[in-house]
Automatic annotation (TrEMBL):
Keywords attached to this entry: DNA-binding, Transcription, Transcription regulation
HAMAP family named among the record's database cross-references: Antitermination_lambda
Taxonomic superkingdom: Bacteria
Keyword Transcription: yes
Record's keyword annotation contains Transcription: yes
Name this polypeptide is given: Antitermination protein
Amino acid sequence: MKLGSVVKYHCPRSASPSVVSSPCSPDDISGTDIMAALGMTLRRAPLGYSAFCGKMNLSHQDKERTVRLLTAIGLNRSVFYPALRKLVDSERLAVIRVLANYAFLDYARSPDTELPCHACNSTGWKKGKRCSKCGGKGMMRAACKDCKGRGQSVHRLKTQMQGVPVYQHCQRCAGHGFERIASAVVFSAVCQVTESISQDTWNKSVKQLLAFLISELYREEAWAEKHLSVITK
């Protein structure tokens, strides 16, 4: 059983999880067994399971748990960063919380994620006219502007040479299909809680911790999926 199958068991309109065929056993897994398996996965891989559920908007509690657990990891990791180690405890905690929140937001992004339009301050209007950037909606999709969320774009030179469309990973979004959160946005948020971290220190050191926390979420999700697969064999 994969983590992607978890979503339907949290949706009240989905089919009842009474029977699920196990790929490794002739027996069926009952709904009670599935709930028990999810509970065991949460216990063994709390961060990965919570992060996935939070990303899929299954509950607000999962998002809060993810940020809390990720903050604890960030605090332990911060001892390797002199710029953070020299901060007072309360200030360092505030910075790590900011990093953990933005790490989760980046991890949970998809092409369909809606973002406030900065051109019109989410009002939908600019200088008395409908905002041309968001079309008056006040919100915009995070989908890459070049590949429109597909993750692939046409290689113009090879397409012209071969006479058929040749696709490549989108250069703008690196094949993700959506734009990542700019590090400048996170740095601006960090500056709201401390003035002890300069732009140079951010670029050379602290920004690396943000990247570590994002990658940690992906590693933990894979770890949770491995546990769930083993439990539901």
